[in-house]
Design a protein that fits this description.
The complex is a heterodimer. Chain A is α/β, with parallel strands linked by helices. Helices cover 32% and strands 24% of the residues of chain A. Chain A folds into 2 domains: 238 residues, P-loop containing nucleotide triphosphate hydrolases (Rossmann fold), CATH 3.40.50; 237 residues, P-loop containing nucleotide triphosphate hydrolases (Rossmann fold, 3-Layer(aba) Sandwich), CATH 3.40.50. In chain A, strands 6-9-10-3-11-12 form a 6-stranded mixed beta sheet, sandwiched between helices. The N and C termini of chain A lie far apart (63 Å). Chain B contains 12 helices and 6 strands. Chain B is mainly α. Classes of the chains: A alpha/beta, B mainly alpha.
């Protein structure tokens, strides 16, 4: 019965120049239901949610709220109908306080004058509902990403949301914060609020969702009820084929000759110094929760944030990196976590991005040799199987996976000794993921040392020869592959395991 | 508030130093003159601050000051080549034109997504050009127009001088209104939110376009008000009155802690920044150093050619000190952490 549904989207189509982002998509939602929306990157999830949130109009199709057709021309139209979208990238004005952000766009006021006191006192109740105990007068810039997420949800609640859209809400949360979020989702469900939950994390989906809708290439390809949800079913719907083996076969255990030694490195903000070593051709995985200090450690090794003490030894030569140049000149390269901001210049071409760190070798005298630049880039394009019309193509219009490959290509053209990969497959779709794993294994075989930071447990277990677990900005333990299990790593990550420093440090 | 307090202290120290070097600084005529100048600068510096806090910039302010004065002179002055209409007609038309210019610029920037720098740069040239065409490149006198008295007359007389001259009264009015608008209303909150995180503002359902457009209207409108004061103060209008004033407004705002990155600043800051700018100008004229050389009493004075140099140095110094304080604080914090970390080793 149509009247059961609080929301129906029928035949929604959206075209962008060159691509059809959504084709004839239907979606229906009951109140008090958690609907998981899944699909690879570029499958059309965010476009669909933008249409629902009023940020973009559909080209075709209709929206029915409580059985009545509606048309959203702006975010506030959609909000008036009780639909609130919580973005993956937190949308906070960091120069305002918590109360200011919660009521941003719907300030309590009297004849245009702000009523700060009313907003603060109303904030207290909302913060309490999301389990946050900070003061509403606190500046948002002082909060952790997890706390900001809760403020976003408090903001959604302040709009009396009937339909709450959560886009990858746990991507920046710690385990405890995620648990807190799941509890709140349970509470909201009981209050009759419908939730559309977008996530790549199977476990969360299995646990939370009453129903799953899977999108692929802008089309709705399937729907599963709660008790039908299995990882394999969802993944095969998402990629359109059975995906059996993501990770390359395990390499036999080997003794890697040492190449990198980190001695008592003091990372800014860390409670104690860090020491470890890595062998030639070894893949060392760094596991830990978000905020456990892995990225900061890698930035200190690469020299983007200089360490406050300690040294690195590469091939027997000791040095303390003060700037990226110091690390680069010794063959240590970093593919950063936030590749759109730190890894690539989006408006520039593939070739220009690849030549950038090595630009001095492209000019024998004064003039840049564009031809040489193109040849080098073409070689990387082919060997990494980057899907692009050509090396002169703008990096900004590539997909996440291909962008990551350009970042890799930029460093591979410079023959790395040590390659640091910070979240190498974040925002990369399933197919490209497998290719990146294969590439990593090949590099390791060639004798390149890889330090890989990853928040995906399976990735860490599937790729690493040795696993360093970090917690609260210190090394909590080092596990060789054969002794690492999901449970052991999780215990160390969360501080439930005993300190395991004896092995391999 | 830290920034505003710091600059306020600096202004007090500067005034003390000037008074010590030349007691003329403390004379009523001089103090009233400096405060009138500061008031006129402050009026449009506050307007500019609205734009800067949203993350924009308005380069047309100085030109609008010029055009307002020229329009008033052309319409209301009894002199030759002028139309001799009543003063209120001239002022209303001039202010209306100023607001219209702000509206057009604001719409171009917010609706068509043109860059503020380019739009207001073109606007500056167009507006200045219009003034030049109206005056035929020459001068329009205000003659016997009652406007002449606006900058000198006022409330509470002290000798021949009005303690609160009309520009000062207008400034006080603008301060009260702007403080309420920026720090007390929903509109002001939106101005800060847009400068702090435009996307967040957009996704919170804030009418970003409308708020942004209004900041340019406010900026242009206050430039128009300042233009009236300057016309009265100078007594005759040429097209280049107000030339470069947009940069004075930006400088005053920045000295007072308004960040060009957007999202930061206050009306109080813009006021103190304006006072600072005018005290510097006044100080360069008044500063003297009496010394004895070979038994003769000699007086060293700064040439007015030093104006730009010293103003530039003060602006640089103000942002430099602020940034150095930030860096030092951060370094101190990191060093403390490193010591703790090393001790645990």
């Amino acid at each position: 019965m149509a009247e059961d549904y609080i929301l129906r989207m029928r035949g929604v189509t959206k075209r962008f120049p060159g691509v059809t982002a959504l084709e004839n998509v239907d979606l229906e939602l009951r109140s008090g239901e958690v609907l998981a929306l899944m699909g690879e990157n570029g499958a059309g999830k965010s476009t669909l949610m933008k249409i629902l949130g009023g940020a973009q109009p559909p080209d075709e199709g209709e929206l029915l709220i409580d059985g009545k057709a509606v048309e959203f021309r702006s975010v506030s139209d959609s909000r008036r109908n009780g639909i609130v979208l919580v973005h993956q990238e937190l949308m906070m004005a960091s120069n305002l306080d918590v109360a200011g952000n919660i009521f941003l766009g719907s300030e309590k006021s009297h004849w245009g004058l702000l009523n700060r006191r009313a907003m603060r006192s109303a904030s207290v109740a909302l913060l309490c509902r999301v389990g946050l105990s900070c003061s509403p007068a606190m500046l948002v810039s002082a909060l952790t990403p997890g706390q900001m997420q809760m403020v976003e949800i408090a903001k959604a609640l302040s709009h009396k949301a009937r339909i709450l859209i959560l886009d990858e809400p746990t991507s920046s949360l710690t385990l405890t914060e995620s648990e807190q979020l799941f509890k709140i989702i349970g509470d909201l469900k009981r209050d009759g609020i419908a939730i559309i939950y977008i996530s790549h994390r199977m476990k969360e989906v299995k646990r939370l969702a009453d129903r799953v809708i899977v999108l692929r290439d802008g089309k709705r390809v399937g729907e599963l009820e709660h008790d039908q949800i299995t990882q394999n079913k969802i993944v095969s719907m998402m990629v359109g084929r059975e995906l059996t083996n993501w990770y390359p076969p395990l390499r036999p255990k080997a003794n890697y000759p040492p190449i990198l030694q980190v001695n008592n490195l003091i990372v800014p903000g860390a409670p104690c110094a860090v020491s470890f070593e890595a062998g030639k051709g070894e893949i060392v995985g760094f596991a830990g929760l978000v905020g456990s200090g892995r990225t900061e450690l890698m930035q200190a090794i690469f020299g983007t944030t200089p360490s406050l003490g300690g040294t690195l030894t590469v091939d027997g030569q000791a040095f303390a990196p003060r700037r990226p140049r110091d690390a680069i000149s010794r063959g240590i390269y970093l593919a950063p976590e936030d590749r759109k901001h730190h890894g690539l210049v989006l408006p520039m071409s593939i070739a220009q991005n690849i030549s950038m760190p090595d630009i001095h070798n492209y000019k024998p005298r004064i003039w840049l040799q564009r031809g040489h630049e193109l040849v080098v880039a073409k070689k990387q394009l082919e060997s990494l199987r980057i899907k692009a019309p050509g090396v002169k193509h703008r990096v900004g219009s590539l997909s996440g996976g291909n962008q990551q490959k350009v970042v890799l290509g930029k460093w591979l053209a410079m023959r790395p000794k040590i390659l640091i990969l910070d979240e190498p497959t974040r925002g990369v779709d399933v197919g490209a993921k497998a290719e990146i794993y294969r590439e990593m294994m090949e590099l390791a075989q060639q004798g390149i040392t890889i330090l890989m930071v990853s928040s995906e447990m399976e990735e860490v277990l599937g790729m690493s020869d040795r696993i360093v677990v970090m917690r609260e900005r210190r090394m909590e333990g080092v596990l060789p592959r054969d002794q690492a299990t999901q449970e052991r790593i999780a215990a160390l990550m969360t501080g439930a395991g005993k300190i395991d420093k004896s092995i391999g440090v | 508030m830290r920034r505003e307090l710091g600059i306020f202290c600096a202004v007090v120290v500067m005034c003390g130093f000037l008074f010590w070097s030349n007691h003329d600084f403390g004379k009523a005529a001089n103090l009233l003159n400096v405060s009138r100048q500061a008031a006129m600068l402050g009026i449009f510096a506050i307007g500019s601050s609205f734009v800067i806090i949203t993350g924009g910039i308005d380069l047309s302010v100085g030109a609008i000051i010029g055009l307002t004065g020229v329009l008033i002179a052309k319409i209301s002055s009894p002199s030759v080549h002028c139309l001799n209409h009543p003063l209120w007609v001239g002022i209303s038309i001039a202010l209306g034109v100023a607001l219209l210019i702000g509206l057009i610029q604001g719409l171009l920037i917010s609706r068509l997504k043109l860059q503020p720098f380019i739009v207001t740069l073109a606007g500056m040239l167009l507006v200045r050009g219009t003034a030049q065409i109206i005056t035929h490149g020459g001068t329009l006198g205000l003659g016997t127009s009652p406007l002449i008295n606006l900058s000198t007359e006022g409330l509470f007389h002290y000798g021949y001088h009005a303690v609160l001259a009309y520009p000062m009264l207008m400034f006080i009015g603008v301060i009260i209104l702007a403080s309420y608008l920026l720090h007390g209303t929903v509109f002001g909150r939106y101005v800060f939110a847009i400068g702090g995180n435009r996307d967040a503002a957009q996704y919170s359902g804030i009418p970003v376009d409308r708020v942004e457009t209004l900041t340019y209207v406010i900026s242009a409108g206050l430039a128009g008000v300042a233009g009236i004061c300057y016309a009265s103060y100078i007594g005759q209008m040429t097209y280049y009155v107000g030339n470069g004033y947009e940069l004075n407004a930006i400088a005053a705002a920045v000295i007072g802690g308004v960040s060009l990155r957007g999202g930061e600043g206050s009306v109080l800051g813009a006021i103190i920044g304006s006072i600072m700018m005018e005290v510097i100008q006044n100080g360069i004229i008044l500063f003297k150093w009496v010394y004895h050389s070979a038994g003769h009493r000699e007086v060293f004075r700064l040439s007015s050619n030093w104006t730009y140099f010293i103003t530039g140095a003060v602006i640089l110094l103000a942002v430099l000190i602020d940034q150095l304080a930030n860096i030092l604080n951060k370094r101190k914090r990191l060093k403390r952490q490193a010591q703790i970390a090393a001790a645990k080793q």
